[in-house]
Amino acid sequence: MEIHYTAEQIAFRDEVRAFLKQELPADISRKVKLGKHLTKADHERWQQILSRKGWYAPGWPVEHGGTDWGPVEKHIFDEETSAAGAPRTIPFGVAMVAPVIIKFGTEAQKQQYLPRILSGEDWWCQGYSEPGAGSDLASLKTRAVRDGDHYVVNGQKTWTTLGQHANMIFCLVRTDPEAQQQRGISFLLIDMATPGITVRPIITLDGDHEVNEVFFDDVRVPVENLVGEENKGWTCAKYLLTHERTGLAGIGASKAALSHLKKIAAKQEKGGKSLLEDTLFRAQIAEVEMSLMAAEVSTLRIVAAASEGGVPGAESSILKVQGTEIRQAITHLMRKALGPYALPFLPEELELDYDGEFLVDDYAAAPASTYFNMRKLSIFGGSNEIQKNIVSKMILEL
Amino acid sequence: MDFKLTEEQQMLQDTAARLVRDVYTFEKRLEFSASDAGFSTEFWQQLGELGLTAIPFAEELGGFGGGGVETMLIMEQLGRGICLEPYMESVVLAGGLIGQLGNEQQKEELLGAIASGELQASVALEEPSSHYNLYDVQTTARQSGSEWLLSGRKGVVIGGHTAGKILVSARTAGDVRDQQGISLFIIDPNAEGVSRRVYATVDGRKGCELFLDNAKGELLGTAGDAYDAIRYQSGRAIAALCGEAVGAMRTACDLTLEYLKTRKQFGVPIGKFQVLQHRMVDMISELERGTSMAILAACLADDKDSEERSAKLSAAKFIVNRAARYVAEQCIQLHGGIAMTWEYNGAHYAKRLVMISHQFGDDDHHLEAYSNQLVVA
Ligand SMILES: Cc1cc2nc3c(=O)[nH]c(=O)nc-3n(C[C@H](O)[C@H](O)[C@H](O)COP(=O)(O)OP(=O)(O)OC[C@H]3O[C@@H](n4cnc5c(N)ncnc54)[C@H](O)[C@@H]3O)c2cc1C
Question: Per the CB < 8 Å rule, is A269 touching B275?
Answer without folding.
Answer: no
